[in-house]
Amino acid sequence: MSLWAAGVTLAATAAGLQPKASAAAALADAGPFGTVAAIILAAALADRLGAFRKLAGALIPDRGPRAACAAVLAFTALLSALVNLDVAVVVAMPTAPSSSFLDKLIFAW
Questions:
Q1: What confidence tens digit (pLDDT) does each residue in 17-63 have?
Q2: 3-state SS assignment for residue 62
């Protein structure tokens, strides 16, 4: 909560000291933040629809925990190389617990 308060305080201070520069910075950052928000919303929808569980089932071989871990890491690396790191993190994070559930592994955040 204190991090949010500090961020709001700093943003208000910057807007008070240099309103034109703050508005320009906010407009410049709107596109990238919007993209990340859209990726997170799409991943949340995919999770609700069960896409990550299906992906984990298709991705993880029935060869034990080491093979499962290697498959998730390889999937994350491939996704990161093809798209970008934001997408890899948003998609790979739900896939890891799903795969551990399928392999009956203990997974803790």
A1: 988 888 888 888 888 888 888 888 887 888 889 887 787 777 776 76
A2: coil
Q: Cβ neighbours of residue 15 under 8 Å, at least 6 residues apart?
A: 22, 23
- Residue 59 vs residues 71, 87, 90, 95: alpha-carbon distances, Å: 7, 17, 17, 9
The H or E element containing residue 78 is helix 65-82
Query: Does residue 109 carry a pLDDT above 50?
Result: no
Q: State whether residue 11 is helix, strand or coil.
A: helix
The residue type found at 9 is T
Query: Around Cβ 96, how many Cβ atoms within 10 Å?
Result: 21
77, 82, 83, 88 alpha-carbon torsion, rounded to 10°: -20
Instruction: Round to whole Å and give the CA distance between 75 and 96.
Output: 10
Q: Which residue has the higher pLDDT, 36 or 6?
A: 6
- Residue 85's alpha-carbon distances to 70, 76, 78, 89, 92, in angstroms, are 18, 9, 10, 6, 10
Residue 75 contacts residue 59 (beta carbons within 8 Å): yes
